[in-house]
Automatic annotation (TrEMBL):
Coiled coil: none annotated. InterPro entries: Sec66 (IPR018624). GO terms for cellular component: Sec62/Sec63 complex. This is Translocation protein sec66. The chain crosses the membrane at residues 6-28. GO terms for biological process: post-translational protein targeting to membrane, translocation.
Length: 252
C-alpha cells in the first residue's frame, strides 16, 4: 500500500512553499508598481498637450464647456487652431526626445559606476516609455485631423524646434555682448598701456645709451689730448744735441 501520510508531508511543504513564493512575488510587484507610481516625474507637466486636449474637448453645442468669464465665441474652435496646437505639442515632444537621448548615455555610465540609484533610473525609464506613447498618440491625432499628416508632423516639428534653439542661442549671445564688450575694452586698454610703457622704456634706454656714448667719447678725447701733451714733453726732454750740451758747460 502507498504510504499517503508520508506523501502528504512533502506535498504540504511544496504547496506552502509555492504559495509563499507567489504571495511574496505579488506583494513585491505591487509594492514596486506603487513605488514607481509615487516617483517624481522626469519632465514637468506637458502644458502643450493639456492645451490641445482642452481645445479638442470643447463642445460647440455645450456652452458649459467654455470656461466662465471667457468669450462664448471660443466654443467655435477652427481646425487651424487645433492643428497649430497639435504642432506645438509635437514641438515640445521633440525637445523632450532630445533631452532623453542626450541624458541616456551619461545616466547609464553613472548607473554602472554606482553614482546614481535605481530610483533615478526607474524615473528615466518611465519618462522614456511615456515619450514613446506620446509620439504614437500625436501621430494618431495628426492622422485623424489630416490624412497622412502623421508621417510628416514630426519633421515640421523638428524644423521648428531647431529654429527655436538657434534663436535661443542667438539671444544668449546677444545678452552676453555687453559683458564681452566691456571685457574686451578693458583688455585693449591694458594692452595699450603696456605697449606705451614698453615704448617709454625703450625711449629712456635709447636716451641713456646716447648720453653714455657721448660721455665716453668726451673721456676718450680728453685722454687723447693728455697723451699727446705727455709725449711731447718726453720728446723735449729726451732729445738733446751735443752743441746744446757744450753751451750749457760754457755758461757754467
Amino acid at each position: 500500500m502507498v504510504d499517503w501520510v508520508g506523501l502528504l508531508i512533502p506535498l504540504a511543504y511544496l504547496s506552502i512553499l509555492i504559495g509563499s513564493l507567489a504571495t511574496f512575488s505579488s506583494l513585491y510587484r505591487r509594492r514596486k508598481a506603487q513605488k514607481a507610481a509615487n516617483l517624481a516625474p522626469w519632465f514637468p507637466p506637458h502644458l502643450q498637450r493639456n492645451i490641445y486636449l482642452s481645445l479638442l474637448h470643447l463642445d460647440p453645442q455645450d456652452p458649459s464647456s467654455v470656461p466662465e468669464g471667457s468669450d462664448k465665441s471660443l466654443s467655435q474652435i477652427p481646425d487651424s487652431i487645433v492643428r497649430a496646437a497639435l504642432l506645438r505639442r509635437a514641438v515640445e515632444d521633440i525637445h523632450r526626445i532630445i533631452q532623453i537621448r542626450n541624458a541616456k548615455p551619461a545616466l547609464q555610465t553613472l548607473l554602472q559606476r554606482g553614482s546614481v540609484g535605481d530610483e533615478l533610473w526607474q524615473r528615466f525609464l518611465r519618462a522614456e516609455q511615456e515619450i514613446e506613447e506620446e509620439v504614437k498618440d500625436v501621430v494618431s491625432e495628426a492622422n485623424a485631423l489630416v490624412p497622412n499628416w502623421g508621417q510628416i508632423i514630426f519633421q515640421s516639428a523638428n524644423e521648428i524646434a531647431n529654429n527655436q534653439l538657434a534663436k535661443q542661442r542667438m539671444e544668449d549671445i546677444q545678452s552676453k555682448l555687453p559683458e564681452e564688450k566691456a571685457w574686451w575694452d578693458k583688455k585693449k586698454q591694458g594692452i595699450s598701456s603696456q605697449f606705451m610703457k614698453e615704448l617709454d622704456d625703450e625711449a629712456a634706454g635709447s636716451r641713456k645709451g646716447s648720453v653714455t656714448s657721448a660721455t665716453n667719447s668726451r673721456k676718450g678725447s680728453v685722454v687723447s689730448i693728455t697723451g699727446q701733451k705727455t709725449n711731447s714733453d718726453e720728446d723735449a726732454v729726451l732729445i738733446e744735441t751735443p752743441g746744446s750740451a757744450k753751451k750749457k758747460k760754457g755758461k757754467k
